[in-house]
Amino acid sequence: MSLRNKFYFASDFHLGTAHYAQSREREDRIVRWLDFIKEDAAELYLVGDIFDFWFEYKHAVPKGYVRFLGKLAELSDLGVKIIMFKGNHDMWMFGYLKQEIGVDIISDDLVIEKSGKRFYIHHGDGLGPGDRKYKILKQIFRSSLCQWLFARVHPNLGIGIARAWSGHSRIAGAKKETFLHEQHEWLVQYSKEVLQKEHFDYFVFGHRHLPLDITLSAASRYVNLGEWINYNTYAVFDGNDLSLCYFEKEA
Ligand SMILES: [Mn+2]
């Protein structure tokens, strides 16, 4: 009888930021978490921004994260189904992780149904009202022309520029996000819009960098997975309910 009956969700590891030592400490913590879940995990959903920067050249990938990638491979070989979402920091994942580890890559949203509960899952970038500048930028970055051009830039320069740019992002400063009024929480607004058309029990997002568990209606909740610089948060579905949990939370 299989003990693999849990579904795990986490996002926004931002591996690589802000410095090597900080990223390695976080990577070790993530590996401990993967060890903690590996016996009872049926499926693992990594909901975007797992890498602070990622690109796959024809014959090369960025250095680093070998313990994390090795541990993912171990889980995959144990029979855990792993699903990774493209985030705004790591939208350039193509076929490498599928080939090496067996990870399924999701570009945008994913709808799943488990034990009669319906989940809507998305990294969370470019949804809801506003942020028009980013939505245009996302279309450009995701175009095959842009990716083809970037692949032509020498990695020493290309990855260097990408890391410098990423160094100015919200997460690099390790500053904690604060909750806005619900009207200004754009993923709350987006979820409520979707609910008008279709029922979901759970909306699961990353991107906000703030762990949230918000009741949208009698039968729907919005869970934000937070991030792993300040919170170490993940969600687990046990076949009955979805819970937001903290890993190795300091008192
Ligand atoms: Mn992020």
Instruction: Look up the CATH topology.
Output: Purple Acid Phosphatase, chain A, domain 2
The main sheet orders its strands as: 4-3-2-1-10-11
**Envelope shape:** globular
pLDDT below 50 for ≥5 consecutive residues: which ranges?
none
Query: Which compounds are bound in this model?
Result: manganese (II) ion
CATH homologous superfamily annotation: Metallo-dependent phosphatases
Number of domains: 1
Structural class: alpha/beta
Order of helices and strands: EHEHEHEEEHHHHEEEEE
Number of strands: 11
Distance between the termini: 37 Å
- Content of β-strand: 15-25%
Give the biggest beta sheet: 6 strands, mixed
Nearest-integer average pLDDT: 94
At the first level of CATH, what is the class? Alpha Beta
Helix content: 25-40%
CATH architectural grouping: 4-Layer Sandwich
DSSP helical segment count: 7
- Cα-atom Rg, whole angstroms? 18 Å
Description of the structure:
By secondary structure, the chain is an alpha/beta fold. It has a single domain, classed as 4-Layer Sandwich (Purple Acid Phosphatase, chain A, domain 2), CATH 3.60.21. 32% of the residues lie in helices and 23% in strands. It contains 7 helices and 11 strands. Helix 1 packs parallel to helix 2. It is globular and about 55 Å long. The protein binds manganese (II) ion (MN). Manganese (II) ion binds next to loops. It comes from Arcticibacter pallidicorallinus. This is UDP-2,3-diacylglucosamine hydrolase.
